[in-house]
Amino acid sequence: MSSTIGIDLMGADVSPDIIYDAVQTTASKFPQSRFVLFSHPSFVVQESSQIQVSYAAHVIEMEDSPLQAVRCKKDSSLVSGILLLQEQKIDAFISCGNTGALVAASSLYLSHLPNIDRPALLALFPSRKGSMVVLDVGGNVSVKAKQLCQFAKMGTAYFKARFSGKIPKVALLNIGSESEKGTKELQEAYHILQAAADPSFIFAGNVEPSSVFMQDIDVLVTSGFAGNIFLKTAEGVASFVFQKAAERLSDKQELTHLAHELSYEAYAGALVAGVDGVVVKCHGYSSKEALCSAIEATTEQVQAKFLNNLKQFL
Amino acid sequence: MSSTIGIDLMGADVSPDIIYDAVQTTASKFPQSRFVLFSHPSFVVQESSQIQVSYAAHVIEMEDSPLQAVRCKKDSSLVSGILLLQEQKIDAFISCGNTGALVAASSLYLSHLPNIDRPALLALFPSRKGSMVVLDVGGNVSVKAKQLCQFAKMGTAYFKARFSGKIPKVALLNIGSESEKGTKELQEAYHILQAAADPSFIFAGNVEPSSVFMQDIDVLVTSGFAGNIFLKTAEGVASFVFQKAAERLSDKQELTHLAHELSYEAYAGALVAGVDGVVVKCHGYSSKEALCSAIEATTEQVQAKFLNNLKQFL
What pTM, to 2 d.p., does this model score? Predict the structure, then answer.
């Protein structure tokens, strides 16, 4: 099936060259697909039969205030991409830029899925038995209890679409397992989710980040602030442990394989979940390898009509 | 020097036997020190020349609401210990019980150090060059900007007392490095700390948990909620990586050494920082080895008059 994937070259910590390079590599694997690159006149790109370019006058920078940037820099590579997705001229949009701006632009210009007030950033983590869906990993700094409950529904739909309809175990990320632990929003969400007894998922209560990797949790629900701390601590600790291990252990090759395996899932990027469109956020410092994985995974998701599949479970 | 260390046997996830066992092992290393154990009549302990026991009618459980428990269960092992510390009949108090209750009881019954509104839980983490002081790791779920600034001062004093007066680099734990990232409290604390330009420490701005282990940060300031997520994610990811590595790598012994080395600092327990007394919180699920480390470290701190030393730097 043919598909058109939009990719933002600007506003990342990584240079546009590397993103462009990743697009070229991935394009050769998907000869039926087209790629629309969103660039700035300062970075001119060679077009081809598969690769088109759209130039925007502005770039949303990492330090820009998200809402203000989305409103004032409408002619930026990031907002241009979202607008083309809104017009259905592309099937998906990938950016390594300002996370808040990407989520804000998606929320502002794309329809929301039913009963979703604010989109959340959804990522996959490795776990004991396979993969765990975590949301929000950084879309909304603070959220209300009602939104945490919506994230539980959204994560459930994503999990079912991805893993053949299996009913997931859903938990709240918290600093203790008891129902009265954590912030007011978490306490309230705990009581709502328990009272609702929604048959579409199994509510497993609160789970602490010290034990979540060893438990069979399928969907982990959190505010964007706590979720981002969780995501980045996991990254930081894993790379610290691997570096310390590399200094001391002899089995370097196996160690590299393991590090790659454990970070592989994250390479696919995070989905802006809750809007009617496939918007993917990659790490600002993505490697070419990570970018190729993300572009490949997104192309495959579009071809498999993943979003339509997900909507059936909402 | 002789010292008297109080130890709570009750209210932990770990059984009182294991805590008692750790006290006996440590006591033999410090023949000049005395140990006062706080127990419940259901767990009777043999006294000796070094080990005394005080029985309390109640136990504060993990699921108890901290403030209510401290008020209603005054005759509990936890509150009895804090009251004996208040009366200076013991030199330090160690508990593996309800964290919130331990911090609340310390705050209620012990004098606060100058300009400290609320005590914070302070822990040491391994870092690239040695040790990093992190506070709050779980004492206060939510904190105001002013309290974050007090934590910066408190962490600085702790760092100087521990590491020969060296001026520390202090950073705020946040989801981005820019000054406008994170919660309102973090944004406000950033501006206060930057404007104050306090010469007692170097303010290094915001730091993300993905890079903090590789940077030369000496004191990491955070709310108790985010700090506890950070602490427990670090624990969870490290043990997940070590377990995966143990399944795959041949160098098991070196791997065990490394895991031990990286978790060793945490074994000393977390200090309830900001009150005029040495109160140490150990993990609810502490191993005997971890408990021995904590009791030993606390005994040494008392003998070295660590708290007096810290007060000079406030």
Answer: 0.92
